[in-house]
Protein: NADPH-dependent oxidoreductase
Organism: Peribacillus saganii
Amino acid sequence: MSKKNKPSSRLELEGVQLPEYILNDTIEVLTSHESIRGFLPKPLPEGAMQAITTAARSAPTSSNLQAYSIIIVQDEQRKRRLAALSGNQNFISEAPAFLIFCSDIFRLRYVTARQGYQFSADTLEMFLLSSVDAALALQNALVAAESLGLGTVPVGSIRNNPKAVAEELGLPVGVFAVAGLAIGFEREGVRRGTKPRLPKQVTVHNETYSFQELEQHLQSYDKTMISRRTYDGRRVSLAGEPEKHGIEYGWCEHTARRCTRPETIAVSASLRENLKQILEEIGFSIR
């Protein structure tokens, strides 16, 4: 696909026509997102980081607990070490800034003790709450950065080595790195065009959940992803199982293989396999 033919937004890709009074700059930024995995050795503009973090801090937060923290990493050596801990993804060290969004109950524990009470909110709900807070802040930061003409990519593989990442970032007990966000000016040629999503009939439901037309939409989406050769060179291997023949490798096959066992989500069996145990060791409860 030539550069001029690459869809620059989901609106263009899906042929969505919005009224002029609805289509504003915010909608255009949101629907034009594409993960960027190649950055120029160029610093962020002055004031950009303050704008991005202020936008992140303006995200919704449950009960105003603000159970998250953001670590800004710009040191070249630390970015390289974090890249190595995150699956050797070089774009992390290329980006001028790498932000790590953490669920944070350390501060809540401190405030509770400071006020003379015992912290008893060590439940699964608190882990979910703090993780959602962190994710909302990340999304605000992503949109803010892209509105400034910068490229971004969220990085879930920061969870590959939680203890090593915590040590690198000096995270106290009760703080967990949920996801990273690489930010910078994109290198030429890294864009591949907006990636198709599942049809809205699959993920957007009116009033009640519906799966009446799920199969036909999955088949349609598979054909789209196969025709784009999306998974060429990215096939998930099934260790110990014979390779299937005669099956077209699209989204369904790729997704199914990734879900055959939990660890394949993180590529290696040694990564994220014991995440529950690690979370409990660093101060979160999954009860």
